[in-house]
């Protein structure tokens, strides 16, 4: 990257850049989404901060055209002889602009925060049926995985080594993370990416947001916004492993100057790469909006229904060593190789959102939302030789023989609802000062109950017998104030958040009675930073932020007040540099994330005999992230990012059960690597456009070795001995380098505005790699035995799509 930067002046000698910000002439607010074109040669959309940039321009005169629905268009003559910055002011027309409801939780272009903005076109170019986390895998420090191996069904994402339970996700400013497990399950919203307008991925603590604290990153999603004219889109994809995606989208455009309606209907089916890892997914998205002179009201209703075969436990190490990378033992019944066909996960999730924006004056605006989410479903599984006493049943005596065990089928249900409100006031008394006051109040109710559907032998179970139930309720309130002040070349940033949690659950008391109880937590999360503009194209920034994160449901229900873990605390230091040189944009960001009481599995048992997560006093992540985009020629460009990090836990204690002595053995480690935290993560996309509207892209990803637990366990001999299984001897995931190719061509014929054809070939060299795993070591015969499970990803596979726009 340094060499490229030194060569930039030579490459750019005959090319200039025109940039600026589109602004409301009355309020001074920026206008994200404005259309900017120059002499019909280039047309772009202003980003989430209202900024635009047109590059590769030669010396001469141009007509700059700027338009935004609800505003009077502007035509301005530009004489270009050097790089030029020109801010454009638009005058409000019949209706106000659609303010981004999530702006309160987003970083601005100059914020002292590490972030990546993805526009709709960036998301859609790879949206051929894979889950949303897979589409975010090219962002800095991100590692993705798929349980079924081909990106459809249950998928996951880690950013800076932090898993989905520590990544805050919002949709239009409304929390998406499950209130109890704290993960975000995008499988519940299949093809959601088709209804997304833009995404901002923040790394580190980031800005104040609603829902669970961002303990490694946050993903802020904005769904479909207004389109100027009516449209109909048909998107169909098909590919390897029986993967098929069908999507229909349509919208009215603006009706009568005030109304718009949009809708989407989707279906995705896939057999998966792993055995019996099929997915049957359905979803829809409906949105209606009213645009007044000073207000906007939008209603979103969207839903997802998923049925997936269980592939959660991964593939055993022994199976992979024998060459069977797709073996799925879940649902196994007997030695004849029979599998239970309904070993499935079934869940439906319905979302309702009411979004409201109001301009209260020239200096004050309000954005708020009411929301309600209803989720219900179960996973069904076959259990061999289950002890009837474990299900609260009395053994039946037949012919003098007590039936203590039987095969059975059980369903584990979750029936939950989540509702509340979010709000923010934006006040700009003078142009350089921007103040936001916001917050949210949300409630969650979750009913966990389990039924027996069938037993092989006679028991005392009645039809649909319920053997356990656990009802939980969580109240979550937060309020925050954020301010940005432009003082000359300095941008001063401050952000203060208070969060209160009340969680009621069924758990053990000090007498080991299982009773309903509650905990209350109070968090204060301050953030501060500064950005200095070196010139119009370069700035440096520094920030400090504090984040706090509560334990999850299992941490509470499987412990007593005496063994209950503490909440986690993170102090995040960020230092960065950003540049925008027209043909090259990029930056470098250094971070140091210091954890206190981070929760990890150690293998120890608490006072109720459960192996829950334990607080580790000291751990940290430190590293450097580089990202850049270079336009080498008009046809050739290269975007890349690379992250180097060191992720360590101090004074870690591991407990292994010794089957020889029937006792736990403790091993102390002074400094080891944090699990699932690779030291190097890199992404590259080289794009070549040989013809108009045609593109060939080579997409590459590298992930270095990462450990399955916090012991940095590697076979001392370096390589397995003869006859040993390398997947079982060591507890880590090997490094991998994977390459994909994407081909795309767009054209129009007669009544079809656009006909797009895309071919995505994943893992073109059929690299054998595993992106995720788990380990369960113990001691047997005086030796440590590793029971390792892995999630192999698919070899060479493809997806092809046909997109029709009318």
Automatic annotation (TrEMBL):
Q: Does the keyword Transport apply?
A: yes
Please state every residue range assigned to the domain named TonB-dependent receptor-like beta-barrel: 299-764
Q: Name one GO cellular component term.
A: cell outer membrane
Membrane topology term reads: Multi-pass membrane protein
Q: Which domain of life is it from?
A: Bacteria
Q: Which Pfam families match?
A: CarbopepD_reg_2, Plug, TonB_dep_Rec_b-barrel
Q: Where in the cell is it found?
A: Cell outer membrane
Give the UniProt keywords, A-Z.
Cell outer membrane, Ion transport, Iron, Iron transport, Membrane, Receptor, Signal, TonB box, Transmembrane, Transmembrane beta strand, Transport
**Keyword Membrane, does the record have it?**
yes
User: Segment Disordered: which positions?
Assistant: 551-570
- List GO molecular-function terms, semicolon-separated: siderophore uptake transmembrane transporter activity
User: What positions does the domain TonB-dependent receptor plug occupy?
Assistant: 109-217
Q: What is its main location?
A: membrane
Q: Which family does it belong to?
A: Belongs to the TonB-dependent receptor family.
For this entry, the protein name equals TonB-dependent receptor
Which species is this UniProt entry from?
Mucilaginibacter agri
């Amino acid at each position: 990257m340094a060499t490229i930067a030194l060569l930039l002046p030579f490459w750019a000698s005959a090319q200039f850049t025109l940039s600026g910000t589109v602004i409301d002439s009355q309020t001074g607010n920026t206008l994200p989404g404005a259309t900017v074109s120059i002499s019909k040669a280039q047309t772009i959309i202003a980003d989430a901060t209202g900024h635009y940039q047109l590059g590769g321009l030669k010396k001469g005169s141009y007509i700059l055209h700027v338009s935004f629905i609800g505003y009077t268009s502007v035509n301005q003559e530009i004489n270009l002889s050097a790089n030029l910055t020109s801010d454009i002011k638009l005058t409000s027309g019949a209706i106000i602009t659609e303010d981004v409801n999530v702006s309160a939780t987003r970083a601005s272009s100059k914020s002292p925060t590490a972030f990546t903005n993805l526009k709709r076109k960036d998301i859609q170019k790879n949206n051929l049926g894979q889950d949303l986390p897979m589409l975010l895998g090219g962002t800095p420090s991100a590692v993705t995985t798929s349980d079924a191996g081909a990106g459809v069904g249950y998928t996951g994402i880690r950013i800076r080594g932090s898993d989905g339970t520590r990544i805050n996700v919002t949709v239009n400013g409304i929390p998406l993370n499950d209130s109890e497990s704290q993960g975000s399950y995008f499988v519940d919203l299949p093809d959601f990416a088709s209804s997304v307008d833009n995404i901002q991925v923040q790394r580190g603590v980031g800005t104040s947001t609603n829902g669970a604290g961002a303990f490694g990153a946050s993903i802020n999603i904005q769904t479909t916004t207004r389109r100027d004219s009516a449209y109909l889109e048909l998107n169909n994809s098909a590919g390897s492993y029986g993967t098929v995606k069908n999507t229909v989208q349509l919208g009215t455009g603006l009706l009568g100057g005030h109304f718009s309606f949009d809708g989407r209907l989707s279906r995705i089916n896939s057999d998966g790469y792993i055995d019996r890892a099929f997915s049957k997914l359905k979803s829809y998205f409906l949105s209606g909006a009213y645009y007044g002179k000073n207000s906007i009201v939008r209603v979103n209703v969207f839903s997802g229904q998923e049925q997936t075969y269980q592939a959660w436990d991964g593939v055993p190490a022994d199976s992979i060593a024998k060459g069977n990378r797709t073996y799925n033992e879940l649902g196994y019944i007997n030695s004849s190789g029979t599998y239970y066909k309904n070993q499935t996960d079934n869940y439906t999730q319905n979302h309702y959102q009411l979004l409201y924006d109001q301009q209260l004056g020239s200096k004050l605006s309000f954005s708020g939302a009411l929301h309600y989410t209803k989720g219900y479903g179960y996973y069904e599984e076959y259990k061999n030789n289950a002890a009837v006493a474990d299900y609260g049943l009395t053994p039946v005596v037949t012919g003098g023989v007590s039936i203590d065990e039987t095969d059975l089928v059980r369903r584990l249900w979750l029936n939950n609802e989540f509702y509340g409100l979010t709000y923010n006031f934006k006040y700009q008394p003078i142009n350089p000062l921007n103040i936001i006051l916001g917050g949210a109040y949300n409630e969650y109710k979750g009913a966990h109950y389990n039924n027996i559907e069938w037993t092989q032998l006679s028991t005392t179970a009645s039809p649909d017998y319920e053997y356990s139930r656990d009802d939980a309720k969580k109240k979550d309130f937060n309020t925050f104030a954020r301010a940005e002040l432009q003082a000359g070349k300095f941008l001063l940033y401050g952000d203060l958040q208070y969060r209160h949690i009340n969680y009621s659950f069924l758990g053990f008391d000090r007498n080991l009675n299982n009773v309903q109880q509650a905990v209350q937590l109070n968090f204060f999360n301050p953030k501060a930073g500064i950005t200095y503009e070196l010139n119009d194209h370069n700035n440096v920034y520094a920030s400090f932020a504090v984040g706090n994160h509560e334990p999850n449901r299992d941490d509470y229900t499987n412990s007593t007040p005496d063994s209950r873990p503490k909440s986690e605390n993170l102090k995040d230091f960020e230092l960065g540099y950003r540049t925008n040189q027209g043909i090259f944009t990029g930056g470098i960001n250094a971070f140091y994330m210091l954890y206190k009481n981070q929760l990890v599995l150690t293998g120890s048992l608490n006072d109720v005999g459960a192996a829950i997560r334990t607080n580790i006093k000291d751990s940290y992540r430190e590293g450097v992230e580089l990202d850049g985009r270079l336009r080498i020629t008009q046809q050739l460009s290269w975007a890349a990012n690379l992250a180097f990090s060191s992720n360590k836990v101090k004074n870690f204690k591991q407990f292994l059960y010794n089957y020889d002595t029937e006792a736990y053995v403790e091993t102390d480690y002074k400094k080891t690597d944090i699990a699932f935290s690779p030291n190097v993560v890199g992404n590259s996309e080289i794009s070549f456009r040989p013809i108009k509207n045609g593109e060939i892209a080579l997409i590459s990803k590298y992930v270095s070795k990462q450990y399955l637990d916090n012991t940095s366990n590697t076979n001392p001999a370096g390589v397995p001995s003869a006859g040993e299984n390398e997947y079982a001897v060591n507890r880590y995931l090997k490094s991998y380098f994977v390459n994909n190719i994407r081909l795309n061509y767009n054209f129009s014929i007669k009544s079809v505005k656009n006909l797009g054809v895309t071919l995505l070939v994943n893992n073109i060299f059929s690299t054998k790699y595993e992106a995720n795993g788990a380990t369960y070591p113990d001691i047997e015969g005086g030796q440590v035995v590793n029971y390792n499970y892995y999630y192999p990803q698919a070899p060479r596979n493809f997806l092809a799509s046909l997109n029709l726009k009318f």
